[in-house]
Amino acid sequence: MTERAAAVRALLASQRDGVLATLSVRHGGWPYASVTPYALTDAHEPLLLLSQLAEHTRNIHADSRTSLFVQENAPEEDPQAGARVTLLGRVVPVGKAERADWARLHDRYIDRHPQAADYFQMSDFGLYVLRVETARFVGGFGDMGWLDAAALRID
Known about the structure:
By secondary structure, the chain is an alpha+beta fold. The protein has one domain (3-152): Pnp Oxidase, Chain A (Roll), CATH 2.30.110.10. It is built from four helices and eight strands; from the N terminus they run αββββαββαββα. Strands 1, 2, 3, 4, 5, 6, 7 and 8 form an eight-stranded antiparallel β-sheet that branches. It is globular. The two termini are 12 Å apart.
């Protein structure tokens, strides 16, 4: 694993939410961004809990291409000095048919976001995974580059 891939993994593990960008159905494919909490799968891919009523979920069902922007808690005087990553990929639902995997992912999400336990009781919420295809990492001024999914995923 490269240093850059390790930095991306560390950043994703250290943060709890990001900005999810989807392609708007309602507005002809314009980017639509929303704050979205996440956990991480065993493969280190973002695990999302999404409501069927949410605009971003409707957009994902129409076109699963998304990006998730995650930023280090940067100093207010210069937010561009902190590390950040934009993950590009496709969001796919986690099937409840694979109960063991679903239960493990459910528990992993609740461990990271205990306040979300009540959402699982509502029928319109479901788990989704962002299957990362590529990522753009910026570690600070002059430290940036693209990484492919194989460099980021733990298999």
